């Protein structure tokens, strides 16, 4: 079994911990040593393990360790990844046992991704690094997904879609075919994207339109 730690001791981190336990029931693979978190004190217990420290402690860790970043903030994940300088740290993909990849030969998958329960990824898909797919998500054929994106439960990405970096796609959102989502875009829950979006914008509704706060 490989040692692994979860960065983020909140709700998503606890869910990932449960997923590791289920993975181990299928194949003994991960030894969870604890959590890293910059907002909670050392020794804090989240119910599934204790906080070992924050970024400074992780960067001083002196043996090989796999780390999965369970934080539902695209910009926050990107910033954190850039601050982890420890050469001993590696970032595996964590994939729930029931996730379906319909053609792994045509799949290009980076590192540090999380696939929670019930996801389906079809054919000719490219996925970058440090994306979170938080359950019951479908990714259609010929889609291209970049880095540091957060997909909340039951998002549907239709075929030929391009989603670049640091986007947050809310629960139940639908991205219709061949549309492009650029950078740092927020798509509200149950919204439907029917055309290309503008960067640094929030979209809500069906059809989704820009809203300003």
Question: What descriptors fit this protein?
Answer:
single chain; 213 residues; alpha/beta; Rossmann fold; UDP N-Acetylglucosamine Acyltransferase, domain 1; 2 domains; 8-stranded mixed β-sheet; 6-stranded parallel β-sheet; 15% helix
Task: Please describe what this structure looks like.
It is globular and about 50 Å long. The protein is of the alpha/beta class and 213 residues long. The chain is built from three helices and 24 strands. Helix content is 15%, strand content 31%. It has two domains: 2-92, Rossmann fold; 95-211, UDP N-Acetylglucosamine Acyltransferase, domain 1 (3 Solenoid), CATH 2.160.10.10. Residues 3-73 form the PglD N-terminal domain. Belongs to the transferase hexapeptide repeat family. This is Acetyltransferase. The active site is at 141 (proton acceptor).
